[in-house]
Amino acid sequence: TRKVSGARLGIFGMGRIGQAIARRAQAFDMEIRYTGRQPHSALPYRFVPGLAQLARESDFLMLCAPGGDATRGVVNAAVLEALGPQGILINVARGSVVDETALIAALENGAIAGAGLDVFTDEPNVPAPLQQRDNVVITPHMASATWETRREMSRLVLENINAWCAGEPLITPVP
Questions:
Q1: How far apart, in whole angstroms, are the C-alpha atoms of residue 133 and residue 107?
Q2: Positive or negative, the Cα torsion across 103, 21, 172, 117?
Q3: d(Cα 144, Cα 150) in Å, to the nearest integer?
Q4: How far is CA 125 from each of CA 66, 119, 142, rounded to the nearest angstrom?
Q5: Angle at Cα 72 formed by Cα 103 and Cα 93, nearest 5°?
Q6: C-beta separation of 60 from 88 below 8 A
Q7: Hey, is 11 helix, strand or coil?
């Protein structure tokens, strides 16, 4: 194991979840940097223009980016190699963001130190080579499974419905 205090945290995807993680990481005096589609001028963290560079500058690489064609497999062998043999990958985004074949190879050959995963490409199926490894922690994708979070999610749905019915802009529009 290793401590997180004072470590370098790279966040891929600095939306609502990425920002919440960054705020929590500040309590551990982590150096926080991020990458994504664009820099956010209102954030106090350093923007890094590319994912491989972010990985190179991180001890922990946290994935918070949305899934889809634009991010499919972007965490590939080159990014994992850049993370390095002491680096730890944490994926709370979507399984499709990581090339699982490259991840398994990186874990097996020591290209990275370990991984924390709660999402997979073919959920709910977890690839056998990721199971029961000393350097992998696997949990269900359960961060929103609290009473408080589900209540907030329901409230937000109702606010969006009310806004739509009133002809007002949606609170959280989806393009």
A1: 9
A2: positive
A3: 7
A4: 20, 10, 16
A5: 75
A6: yes
A7: strand
Whole-angstrom CA distances from 34 to 28, 30, 102, 107 are 17, 12, 22, 23
Its pTM stands at 0.85
Q: What angle do CA 160, 143, 133 make, to 5 degrees?
A: 150
Report pLDDT digits (tens) over 121-155. Answer: 998 899 999 999 999 999 987 777 789 988 999 99
Asked whether the beta carbons of 150 and 123 are under 8 A apart, the reply is no
- CA distances 14 to 33, 63, 79, 91, 175, Å, are 10, 9, 18, 14, 18
- Residue 172 — φ and ψ, nearest 5°? -130, 75
8 A C-beta contact, residue 119 and residue 92: yes
User: Going along the chain, which residue ranges are E strands?
Assistant: 8-12, 31-35, 46-47, 60-63, 88-91, 114-117, 136-138
Q: How many CA atoms lie within 13 A of 112 on its CB side?
A: 30
Query: Mind telling me the catalytic residues?
Result: 94, 123, 141
